[in-house]
Amino acid sequence: MGLMEEVHEALRRGHYSFRTEQAYTGWIERYLRHHRKVAGAWVSPEALGEAGVEAFLTQLAVERKVAASTQNQALNALVFLYEKVLDQKLGAFEAKRAKKPARLPEVLSRGEVAAVLDAVAEAPADPLVTRMHGLMANLLYGAGMRLTEVTRLRVKDVSLERGRVMVRDGKGAKDRAALLPERCIAAMGEQLAWRNRRHEADLKRGGSVGWVPMPYAQVRKTPAASRSLAWQYVFASPRVTPTPVMRLFMDGSAASGGAPLEDPAMMQAALERLGLADSQDVEVRRHLHENTLQKAVAAAVKRAGIDKKASCHTLRHSFATHLLEDGYDIRTVQELLGHKSVKTTMLYLHLTSGGGRGVLGVVSPLDRGAGRRARRERAAQPRSTVR
């Protein structure tokens, strides 16, 4: 087994997300290429040790001038290589560190949020996709969800009755409950009804249609779940994608973004349970790609005439800031955002806080007044003449 195969295996054994796997393997490959270029020949990472890591990280900061977060990711990847794959503890080293600027996240005012959400909902594009983008943007702000958490939301994780969604395998492989704003419930109900109709139509087309990428552990327990409505993506693509059945299952337990399963024995067992052949293609309805929503929000910011560097993540920043402005304590906001450390949440506002309340009793800032419908509802309310 080659070194990079060992790295892949160690990452999957540790149930790292697919994105982390891609990032770590990319940095390890760049590290090895860098030292091969410097030495003019292959140099084993064992021989490079702390000095090799220090030289590489210094080169990133001094020559390539990468951001502090980028350099930290490279460091984490190399620590993983040495400690988890090569079983070699790294000693102390003094690499030149990239400076992390003391910047607060960009935040939109409530009026600016309203303008962006309205612009997303009125985009001159395919009506079906525009409708989905409108609801997704409302969840970015109204629930404080991350971009991938919204795009990879599954039907089973939405509760209209309880007014919440479950975020599975969020950042740090954690689950959490997030708000489903009252203003989103009707639109979400319509989206789920559309998703049900589309899935029923897919199933009627035959056994090669209606599949969805699944974690292998779930397939092993309940094979039929691979074609069930519960596991389908809420924000599914209008088009199906022909996919080799070998790419249908995900490694590990990551329901939202795991790596494709590559172990032959495990794959064969999964196929047998589903009655599929390994040479077969199936038609998969994947979720809308993150890039499409990013472009929709960027275009909406421009159409709204907002001169800020705003993105999908800016809506999440605005959610946190507006909750704090509304008087919710920092611990509650931390829980809703899914932050591991309260220090991360403190970037939004430095407040003393008590225990968090989670979803219970929290009114989404979306329900407090961002968006066209909320403005209409406030305008329709009778004004008091009492002074």
Brief descriptors of the model:
single chain, 387 residues, mainly alpha, DNA polymerase, domain 1, hpI Integrase, Chain A, 2 domains, three-stranded antiparallel β-sheet, three-stranded mixed β-sheet, 15 helices, 8 strands, disordered C terminus
Task: Describe the protein's architecture and organization.
A hairpin with an 8-residue loop joins strand 2 and strand 3 (176-179). The radius of gyration is 24 Å and the shape is globular. The longest helix has 23 residues, at 182-204. It has 2 domains: 3-85, DNA polymerase, domain 1, CATH 1.10.150.130; 109-380, Orthogonal Bundle (hpI Integrase, Chain A). It has helices at 3-13, 18-39, 45-62, 68-85, 110-121, 127-142, 147-151, 182-204, 216-221, 264-274, 290-303, 312-325, 330-337, 342-345, 372-380, and strands at residues 158-159, 164-167, 176-179, 209-211, 214-215, 241-244, 249-250, 281-284. The protein is mostly helical. Helix 1 (3-13) runs antiparallel to helix 2 (18-39), helix 5 crosses helix 11 (290-303) and helix 6 (127-142) packs parallel to helix 12 (312-325). The chain is built from 15 helices and 8 strands. Strands 1-2-3 form a 3-stranded antiparallel sheet. It has a 3-stranded mixed sheet with strand order 4-8-6. Strands 5-7 form a two-stranded parallel sheet.
